[in-house]
Amino acid sequence: MPHSASAKKRHRQNLRDRERNRQVKSVIKTSIRKVLEAVSAGDTDLAREQLRAAAKTADRAAAKGTIHRNRAARIKSRLSARVKGVSGAAAPAAKGRKTTTA
Predict the structure, then answer these.
(1) 76: Cβ contacts below 8 Å, ≥ 6 apart
(2) What's the pTM?
(3) What string of pLDDT tens digits covers the 102 residues of the chain?
(4) Which of 68, 38, 33 is nearest to 54 (CA)?
(5) Nearest by Cα to 88 from 44, 47, 41
(6) How far apart are alpha carbons 37 and 31 in whole angstroms?
């Protein structure tokens, strides 16, 4: 346990910040889950709407430093690929890989 006044204050700040970060991360996970549920249900319009909300949440968390900006970008990229896949648009082949038909 902290002994000095400054260490006690820092401990209080850490506890408060940890709780806030946990809440934000929970909201991000919930928004991701909503997108994936809409995709699995095949509801394109709802999936796009939920994707916008998830991207906004991830960007806001990255701007405040709760998550890394690359993680926010990764979340958005993966979700947008899923939404694009359900909308009927063919996903482009990965760079550097040749598709073979047998």
Answers:
(1) 51, 54, 55, 58, 59
(2) 0.77
(3) 899 999 999 999 999 999 999 999 999 999 999 999 999 999 999 999 999 999 999 999 999 999 999 999 999 999 999 999 887 654 555 565 566 665
(4) 33
(5) 44
(6) 10
**Alpha helices, DSSP H only, in 1-102?**
5-41, 44-64, 69-86
What is the token pair recorded at 53? 């909300």
Residues 6+ apart with CB under 8 A from 8: 2
Instruction: Report how far Cα 47 is from the mean position of its chain's Cα atoms.
Output: 14
Q: Domains, the chain, ranges and CATH?
A: 5-86 (1.20.58.110)
